[in-house]
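in:
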């Protein structure tokens, strides 16, 4: 009843006000025409914001073209935001440049980077903003990402900083047509792997495409995995290291002595060796799911788990995998009133379901609940099968070691392979640097 009276009262007041206005102005009085000389009020123009972004979607990365197209689309839809992108191949040099930029005050506004040990320095120095803090202002930030994917993003302080787009797996990719051409069985066990290495070396085909100068880390973890199995592989060596780690690293010299790698393995670059595999100049490559999109003839390529080494403890199905990268917003951008909203918009655009579907078409589990990519190739199906059959899936070793310890280990691989230092000498120094 009170509501009805209030409504009646409001209507009555409106009628009275309208009557008063009509009385105040004669009916025949003309409506004044605006003076042409009076300036019109213009809509305020949006301020142009420039974001500096850094990612690993460069070089031979199969998502590089899609990423650049997404950037172009984003700028078209947000005409006041300019993206200055600095994408490059994610080797150790690139990783060092990212950390150097942050430590020298040249912080990017948005960076697509690794989680875990690689992110510790950025988090401890307050260089990146947590998702929890961002959600206090933007509640829907990263809300489309699955709980399973986000669980891999949790850092040492219990918070989440990076927004993932796709997961990954690592495996031994094989050019099946070369194996068929030379009557070789696929390397489903260590004996078959060594047989293939010797045969391909004999006929002038590089058995395993690899680079020890910038990206040797896949073999570091897989040799250790092949010998020590899941339990030893997941150790973070702060006081000592498992003996299986030294035994695993000894395979670098054994394989190099067998002629498994390119003759210039200590000097060549990862982009070059990846193209060797793509062009059928190499029979195998140990790499991640991200290389699938660059394979020229995917129906003549498969991927397998690295087999268990002689006397090793690895389950034949065990693999390396998970979610280990994502988009970060820097503290510098977050604290800039002109950049905050633009940075959030950019990350939300790049981690939308539509963008994640685009990234996931290459390979790897999508970080959001999106439909499976259409037109699955033979190698994509092999990767999914490998992941589904794995008894254990562990994250890479570099997700646990300190940055200093990991960098030292990577830089020592060529010397181990040449017999200039022993695995024990290197690993003791790794422990010292991993305190």
């Amino acid at each position: 009843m009170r509501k009805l009276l209030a409504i009646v009262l409001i209507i009555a007041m409106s009628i009275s006000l309208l009557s008063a206005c009509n009385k105040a102005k004669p009916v025949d009085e003309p409506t004044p025409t605006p003076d042409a000389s009076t300036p019109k009020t213009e809509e305020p123009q949006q301020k142009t914001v420039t974001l500096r972004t850094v990612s690993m979607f460069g070089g031979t990365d199969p998502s590089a073209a899609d990423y650049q197209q997404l950037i172009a689309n984003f700028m078209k839809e947000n005409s006041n935001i300019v993206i200055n992108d600095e994408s490059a191949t994610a080797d150790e040099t690139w990783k060092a440049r990212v950390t150097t930029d942050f430590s020298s005050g040249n912080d990017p506004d948005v960076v697509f980077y690794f989680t875990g040990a690689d992110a510790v320095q950025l988090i401890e120095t307050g260089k990146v903003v947590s998702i929890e803090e961002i959600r206090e202002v933007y509640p829907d930030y990263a809300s489309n990402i699955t709980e399973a994917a986000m669980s891999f993003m949790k850092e040492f302080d219990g918070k989440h900083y990076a927004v993932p787009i796709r997961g990954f797996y690592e495996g031994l990719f094989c050019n099946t047509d070369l194996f068929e051409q030379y009557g070789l069985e696929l390397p489903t066990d260590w004996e078959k792997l060594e047989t293939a290495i010797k045969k391909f070396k004999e006929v002038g085909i590089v058995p395993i495409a690899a680079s020890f100068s910038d990206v040797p880390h896949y073999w570091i973890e897989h040799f250790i995995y092949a010998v020590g199995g899941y339990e030893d592989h997941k150790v973070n060596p702060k006081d000592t290291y498992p003996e299986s780690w030294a035994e695993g690293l000894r395979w670098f010299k054994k394989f190099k002595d067998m002629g498994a790698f390119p003759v210039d393995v200590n000097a060549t670059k990862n982009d070059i060796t990846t193209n060797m595999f793509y062009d059928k100049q190499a029979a195998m490559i140990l790499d991640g799911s991200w290389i699938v999109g660059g394979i020229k003839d995917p129906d003549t390529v498969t991927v397998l788990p690295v087999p268990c080494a002689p006397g090793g403890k690895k389950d034949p199905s065990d693999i390396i995998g998970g979610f280990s990268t994502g988009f970060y917003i820097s503290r510098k951008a977050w604290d800039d009133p002109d950049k905050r909203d633009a940075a959030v918009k950019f990350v939300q655009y790049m981690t939308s379901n539509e963008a994640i579907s685009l990234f996931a078409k290459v390979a790897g589990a999508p970080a959001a609940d999106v439909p499976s990519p259409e037109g699955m190739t033979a190698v994509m199906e092999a990767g999914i099968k490998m992941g589904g059959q794995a008894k254990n899936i562990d994250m890479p070793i570099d997700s646990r070691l300190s940055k200093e310890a990991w960098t030292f280990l990577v830089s020592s691989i060529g010397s181990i392979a040449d017999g200039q230092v022993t695995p024990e000498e290197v690993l003791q120094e790794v422990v010292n640097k991993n305190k």
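note: The first strand starts at residue 49 and ends at 55.
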